[in-house]
Amino acid sequence: MLPDWEKLIVGTLAMLLLFLMWPGIKAAMARSKNAPSDWPSLLIPLALVVIFVVFLIAMV
């Protein structure tokens, strides 16, 4: 468990990092609204991994 003063330092650094990165995050979110969605590129590999894990479990 961290002492209280270390928690304050970590929290302050986290807030500072978020403050410094916010313009980039805001711009990335604006660009992502105009980008086409590409769900098959996520779902196909995920389905293959699930099928592979089920296959491995069935082999036991």
**Total strand segments:** 0
Order of helices and strands: HH
Stretches with pLDDT under 50, minimum 5 residues: none
Beta fraction: under 5%
Estimated structural class? mainly alpha
Largest sheet: none
Number of helices: 2
What is the radius of gyration?
Answer: 21 Å
Shape: flat
What number is the mean pLDDT?
93
What is the helical fraction, as a range of percent? over 70%
Taking the alpha carbons of the first and last residues, their distance comes to 40 Å
In summary, what is this structure?
The chain is an all-alpha fold and 60 residues long. It contains 2 helices and no strands. The protein is flat, with a radius of gyration of 21 Å.
How would you portray this structure in words?
The protein has 60 residues and is mostly helical. The protein contains two helices and no strands. The protein has helices at residues 4-34, 40-59. The two termini are 40 Å apart.
What's the topology here?
Elements: H1 4-34, H2 40-59
Which descriptors would you attach to this protein?
single chain; 60 residues; mainly alpha; 2 helices; flat
